[in-house]
Amino acid sequence: MATQTWTFGRSWARASRTRHLLLGIPLVIAACSSARDNGTTAPAPPQAFAPTGPQPDFGPLVEQAESPPPISGGTLAIDRKQGLAVAADSDRDRVYVVDLPSRTVRHVVALAHRSEPGRVTIDASGRAHVLLRNTGEVATIDLATGSVTTRSACTAPRGIAFDAKKDVLYVACATGDLLTFATGSGNALRRSTMARDLRDVVLVGDGILTTRFRSAEVIPMKADGTPMAVRSLGNSNLAWRAIAAEPDPESSEQTDEETAVVTQDPSPEPVRPEPGGYGGSSAFGIVGCTTSVGIVSTRLWLVGKEGGTKGSVRLPSAVLPVDVATNGREYVVIAAGNAYTKGLAQLFVVHAAQLRMGAQECVSTIEGDVPGQAVAAAFDDKDELVVQTREPAALHIMSEDRRRPWKTIVLSTDTRADTGHAIFHSNAGGNIACASCHAEGTDDGHTWNFVDMGPRRTPSLLGTTKGTEPFHWAGDMKDLSTLVDHVFVERMGGPKIDKEHVGTLGHYLFTLPPPPKLRSEADAPAQGKELFGQRCASCHSGSRLTNNQSVDVGTGEVLQVPSLVGIGWRAPFMHNGCASTLFDRFDPKCGGAKHGDIADLTKDQIADIVAFVETL
């Protein structure tokens, strides 16, 4: 699709108490989502591999006996009244309470092993509330003493927010539950159940807004917890992070009833299986904005109280946008995927006015970087931008222009460096990382259309890879080395990976734990287990719940039998996403009798099978 792109440059001067910045803000008309948009004919795909962009450097090879968890981001909160930062460290199972004026760590709070602390919120009584993603709890920390208590929440808590008017906490769970707690100890006061895969919860005026991770949908809710109509964020998937959008003191238009959401946009065009098919280096500039070809791009959204979009900005070079922060005037997107490539930014600063100019495909940004891998950011009471890095564990107070650190606070000297983790989360060279599609080790919920292959649903990697060779739906990748050569090196434009690095990546992938149980077996009808054993276990058996064979189950292709470990979390199902739910999997359009003959089963019996499958 060829389009014309017109730009009109103008200057935007912004004065504040501490600095004066000059930003060029382009007005972009029409889209510039690929190199074809400049009105020229797209070049033919390369016939031999050549690096497509700046290459990552993983440094000396290192492997942790117990691999670090996948990056989730958004693990920093700041109490602006007290000048305290609270940083959750999912790699070391700790929370740090940091006094920002003195640049000192006040408390190091040790948590249970593999609890994986995630999102943080701070209440009005000097307590931080931290979600423990793996243990399903909320840890409450007294910021004055460092003492900690925990309470049970739900399976897979993902988002948390504090409501000062009601003195309650809202906890969003991947199970689809939104829980309301009193800030003190106690059980949930209220439970609202929505669609699964909830991510963040944000207060917007007198209402609440939740997001869904893989579908990048927003669900506005009334003050009483009643869900309103689900709203989609355009073509996006993977809503990595949502925060309250603070009022811009320079704008009369903005209110305090808006939310900022950072997502990924998958390309609507078919994906080439040839070298360079996942990304490329072709680029063109628009008033300082460089847009590179790739199958995913970051987008920053401004969303209103009822879920309607008020503007968006595309940031194609921001790989793995795991967090966003704002002071009302600026929005800072953290791109963890750029950490291992010299010269690539991890911080992308967008002026608030740019978000109010409609859907923009190319904008000027201020770009900054930090040593290590950035995973979170927040603004303090002095309008300083604070950035958290996971390895090494530190907080960096950025310079006034947001480009570089001017103060660093070391949080821990315990290293969790792991080359396999680095490769998995790194921008390979074509503005895409493994984790761009296999977010948090799972999947993006997306079915990609590959030229000469057809539709291919992204598989989850959580507990599903070790011992399940050959890889890919067609079983055409005999081992991990083959997969790395064809996918990471050729399609993603990454550097050649030697045998030792492939082994380290394998150690990381093969030790990713399965997701938490969506349902306990005790809660599933016994008949479901029995019927599964009779109708399904001939292919889906053993610890990996697959026989590693390739068969045609009525879809017209010979494909690998996938592992069913954690299957209940990863709708839609099948290689082409034909089943929106597990119940739909038994529809004839997803294979019919060749995929297990169920003609003699009632709907209730099929429902029993589904209930059991959700325990796997």
**CATH fold category name of the domain at 76-265 and 298-349 and 368-413:** Methylamine Dehydrogenase, Chain H
**Largest sheet composition:** 5 strands, mixed
How many beta strands in the DSSP annotation?
Answer: 39
Radius of gyration: 24 Å
| Residue runs with pLDDT of under 50 for 5 or more positions | 1-50, 281-288
Describe the structure.
The chain is mostly beta strands. The chain contains seven helices and 39 strands. Strands 21-22-25-26-30 form a five-stranded mixed β-sheet, with no helix packed on it. The two termini are 44 Å apart.
What's this entry about, in short?
This protein has 616 residues and is mainly beta.
